[in-house]
Amino acid sequence: MLQPSNPHDYGSTTSVLDAITALGTAAAVLVALAAVAVGWHVANRDRKHSRLVERQRALIDLLAAFEAMQAYQVPAFGKDGELTTWSQTHPREFEEIRARWRASLYASGEDLPYTRRAAFDHFGPGPLPDGARLEGNPEIDTDAVRAIRGEIVDVLDLLRTQIEG
Predict the structure, then answer these.
(1) What is the value of pTM for the model shown?
(2) Per residue in 121-155, pLDDT tens?
(3) What is the sign of the dihedral through the CA atoms of 133, 127, 115 and 102?
(4) What are phi and psi of 97, to 5 degrees?
């Protein structure tokens, strides 16, 4: 068999080209894997942010229902000069607001132990005890009202920090 006189025969050139192609393919695979990993990270971060924003909205609705219910409890003088509350003079509207508050708190996944205990005399979702009462008299229960409001606002502040961070 004849040996080529040229030391750079086609066989060695093909081997070099195959090696370069293999390196290029490996680099392309690594770049694709990095792109997929970055995409998963971004998608996961977006989902987490969306969940935090949804929790924040639900808590804002819960706080709004609580504040509306408390507004109906503020004592005022009626037309006849008697001390009364809006919950006494407008019972239907008050019941609707109280139902919204009760449903929002019941559906909330947040850890609000004081609020649940004050509202339902139990912790967490589940059947409510008979005669569970949510409303209170701000003239008498001002500490409890402040504690409930403070607990909800503290969770809102924590969520805001997590959303912004």
Answers:
(1) 0.56
(2) 544 444 444 554 444 444 445 667 777 888 888 88
(3) negative
(4) -65, -40
Asked whether the beta carbons of 106 and 125 are under 8 A apart, the reply is yes
> How far apart are alpha carbons 123 and 115 in whole angstroms?
9
Contacts of 93 (CB under 8 A, 6+ apart): 72, 86
Q: Which two tokens stand for residue 150?
A: 């403070």
Q: Give the C-alpha separation, 121 to 130, whole Å.
A: 10
Q: Residue 68 and residue 62: Cα distance in Å, rounded?
A: 10
**CA–CA dist 118, 110 (Å, integer):** 15
Residues contacting residue 101 through CB under 8 Å, at least 6 positions apart = 62, 65, 66, 68, 69, 134
CA-based nearest residue to 71, from 92, 89, 94 = 94
